[in-house]
Write a structure and sequence with these properties.
This protein is mostly helical. It contains 15 helices and no strands.
Length: about 300
Amino acid sequence: MPSFFGVLFVSLCWGLGGPLSFSAVQTLSPAAATFGRCVFAFLGLSPFFILDGPRLFRRLSPRGLMLLTLSGFLLGVHFYFFIAGVAYASLATTVMIVAVEPVLILAIGVLGFKEKLTSHGVLGILFCISGVMIISALPNWLSGSSNRGWGDLCAVLAVVTYAIYYAINRGLRSEEARMNLPGGVLRGGFAMASWIYLFASLSSGSLIFITTDGQKGLSGPLDAKVWGALIAMGLIPTLLGHSLSQILSRRVHPIWISLMSPGETLMSLLIGWVFLNQSLRPVDQLGGLLIGAGVIIALLGEIRKKDSSRPK
C-alpha cells in the first residue's frame, strides 16, 4: 500500500510538469528552462546538502560516486529532452514519453536486476499503456493527422535517458544501505537527491551553450509568471516528484515505478479538468478508466503476493 500512495503522489507531481514546462518555454529556451528547474530543485534541498551532503559524498565508494554523478548528468539531459518535446510538440511526443517508459523500466528490472514479474503486474501495465495510447494517439489516428520531427526525436531521447537514469538509481541501492545516514529514509534520500540536482544543474547549464535553441535568448521579459513556472517546476515535479521516485526506485519493484508515467497522464487530465476547465473527451474518459484499472490490478497483485508469502 505505501507503494501505491507513492505512485499516486509522484503521478500528481509529474502531472504538473507538462503545463509548467509549456508556460516556461513561451519565454525561455528549453535548455534555460531546464537549468532553472534543476537549480530551484537544488536550492530547495540545500539544507539537506549542507547537513548531510559532505558526509554522504565521503561515504560513497568510487563506484557510488560514478553512479551518483551519472545519475545527475542524465537527469539534466532527460529534463532537457522532455521540455524540448513540450516546446516542439508533435503527435508521437506524449505517446512515446508515457507509453514506452513502463516497458523499458520493466525490461531493465527483469534483465538487469533479475526481478520477477507477476501476471497481475504485466496485465496492469498493458491496461495502463492501452489507456495512454487511447488518450494520446487514437484521436490523431482517426483524423489521419501526422506530425513528425524534432519533437518526436526529443521524446525518444527523453524515454531512453530516463530508462538509463532509472537503472543507475536502482544500482545505488547497495550504496544507500551501506552509508547508513542519520534521519531515516527521507533525509538520506533528499541528501542524495541534492547531489543529483547539483549535477543536473551542471549538465543542463552546459546545454545552454551547446544547443542551438539555447543561443536564442529570451522571447519576452522574465516576469512573475515565468519565475513562478520555474520555481514550481523545480519544487513540485522535481524536488517532490523526482526525489520520491528516486527513493522508491531503490526500494520497490519496477512495476510500481513503471506505473508513474501512465499515472502522470491521468493526473494531467484531471488537473486540466478541475483547474483549467478543460473538457474530458470520451477517449479521455475511456483511457483514464483503463489506466485506473491497470493500477488497481497491479495493486491487487501486490496484495495477493504479500498474502501468499505470509506463514500460515
